[in-house]
Amino acid sequence: MTQYHPLTPQEAIELAKTLPGPFTADANLDCREIGDGNLNLVFHITDQNSDKSIIIKQALPYAKVVGESWPLSLVRARIEREILQEEYRLCPGMVPEVYHYDDDLALTVMEDLSDHVIMRKGLIDGASYPLFAQHIGEFMARTLFFTSDLGMNQQQKKEQQGRFVNPDQCKITEDLIFDEPYRIAQNNNYETAIEDEAEALRTDEALHLEIALLREKFLTHGQALLHGDLHTGSIFVTSESTKVIDPEFAFYGPMGFDVGAVLANLLLHYVSLSGRFQDQSTRNKRETELLDMVRDVWTEFDTRFRALWTTALVDPMAKTPGYQDLYVQQLFRDTIGFAGAKMVRRIVGLAHVADIDTITDAAEREHAQRKALAVGKALIKNNRHVNTIGEVLDLVSSALATVKA
Ligand SMILES: Nc1ncnc2c1ncn2[C@@H]1O[C@H](COP(=O)(O)OP(=O)(O)O)[C@@H](O)[C@H]1O
Ligand SMILES: CSC[C@H]1O[C@H](OP(=O)(O)O)[C@H](O)[C@@H]1O
Q1: Residue 264 CA: which ligand is closest?
Q2: Any atom of ligand 2 within 6 Å of the Cβ of 348
Q3: Which of 57, 82, 273, 315 makes the best surface tag, with the fewest CB within 10 Å?
Q4: What is the pLDDT at residue 363?
Q5: Domain span holding position 67
């Protein structure tokens, strides 16, 4: 057994040399630590004598973004690796292939996806991803359906739930998304220019009621095995391909939490566009593209999820006429509520998004933050009543109309 310690880049190279592949004996290995996330080390190991490369991701025993004062269990590395393997089985080629792992060192050796770009960065750079909605719709439909009671044996599902109990990571979400933005909390992080908005979040009881209900759903509804943090910083893309990484927040929770994460991060990018484009016609074009993507992600997911119901259902009672429509309606409402909560947390909570934080003009940045909060709050407050994605896009539009230019 190897004693856990964070690897140095040189140790990562030594480890890579002991692996059965992909490197050969004459490899000349180079290593860079490229982790730009909030929690882990990520080593990029390349062979100077060939085009071969790997990624070694290692968990730290604390939250990197805060420091050692915030301890975290290393079990998340095992959970991340096991869900990557499960997702690879369900959606081959849509997550990095796992080559090797070491649970004592809390690390996973995986496929290098550096020929793709992190979607958040791609969007900020102005790229378009016309196949993204189909791809992510397929990924979410298959991973959520086949890990739920609809698509897998219900006793095996209970066994699987046991393997994916992830309390430290869930607590981060419970605190950062479903609690701290709505009270004074040390972790909260927002600009003084929006103190009025933060104060409004703390005193809005109708909003608190909806957040309490969403929080309860997150805490108690073990519907399917979630990725758990499916934002655009956890998705690698090209114009032809989509690959999902970083499922260390995986656990059995409500399906809408994953779908909502995707929609929220597209909407966060959408509200950032006015701060990025001076030219009105370019901006309009890009805004339309983003809203189309929001609509298409839901539609593609919905279509594929319902198709699996027809072809792959294992629960006979779920064939009862009317049940599918009610199930998907509730899943849609959850999606919209969680999307709203995820927008709010990225403005006033600990961890932000580059889409908004990199807007250089302070007034434009503040405007984008106010827009994100207006949309987020509208989604949260209306989540229990919406029925269609068209209605949601109308809600977005009316929420934005309330924000002063
Ligand atoms: N399989 C991979 N291939 C290439 N780069 C990767 C891979 N996994 C992670 N990375 C890089 O490392 C960064 C951080 O990885 P991530 O898994 O998101 O870490 P964290 O859990 O700390 O957020 C990503 O933004 C990406 O740039
Ligand atoms: C203290 S962790 C904050 C935040 O970071 C995670 O995202 P990522 O590791 O992908 O940057 C997750 O969203 C957590 O809520």
Answers
A1: 2
A2: no
A3: 315
A4: 97
A5: 9-111
Give the number of whichever ligand sits closest to the CA of residue 35. 1
pLDDT of residue 1 exceeding 80, the answer is no
Give the global pTM.
Answer: 0.98
Whole-angstrom distance, CA of residue 309 vs CA of residue 315: 10
- Residues 106 and 153 occupy one common structural domain: no
* Closest by Cα among 338, 309, 262 to 145: 309
Same domain, yes or no, for 103 and 207?
no
Query: Is residue 308 within 8 Å of 141, Cβ to Cβ?
Result: yes
- Round to whole Å and give the CA distance between 29 and 326: 55
The Cα 173–Cα 185 span in angstroms is: 14
The residue among 69, 90, 111 that closes a domain is 111
Of all atoms in ligand 1, which is nearest to the CA of residue 110? 1
What's the 37 CA to ligand 2 centre distance in angstroms?
Answer: 7
Is the shortest distance between the CB of 95 and ligand 1 below 6 Å?
no
User: With a 6 A CB cut-off, is 84 part of the ligand 2 pocket?
Assistant: no
37 lines ligand 2 (CB under 6 A): yes
**Ligand 1 atom nearest to CA at 234:** 18
Q: Is the CB of 84 under 6 A from ligand 1?
A: no
Tokens of 27: 């490899």
Residue nearest to atom 6 of ligand 2 (CA): 38
Q: Supply the DSSP string of 270-321, one letter for each residue.
A: HHHGGGT--SHHHHHHHHHHHHHHHHHHHHHHHHHHHHHHHHH---GGGGST
Domain end point (choices 111, 142, 157): 111
Ligand 2 nearest atom to the CA of residue 345, by list position: 15
Kind plus residue range of the DSSP H or E element containing 340: helix 323-348
Sequence ranges of the binding site for substrate: 229, 345
Q: Is the pLDDT of residue 197 over 80?
A: yes
Smallest-distance ligand from the CA of 172 = 2
Give the model confidence (pLDDT) of 296-326 as tens digits.
Answer: 999 999 999 999 999 999 999 999 999 999 9
Query: Which pLDDT tens digit goes with each residue over 351-366?
Result: 999 999 999 999 999 9
Q: Give the model's confidence band at 162: pLDDT under 50 very low, under 70 low, under 90 confident, else very high.
A: very high
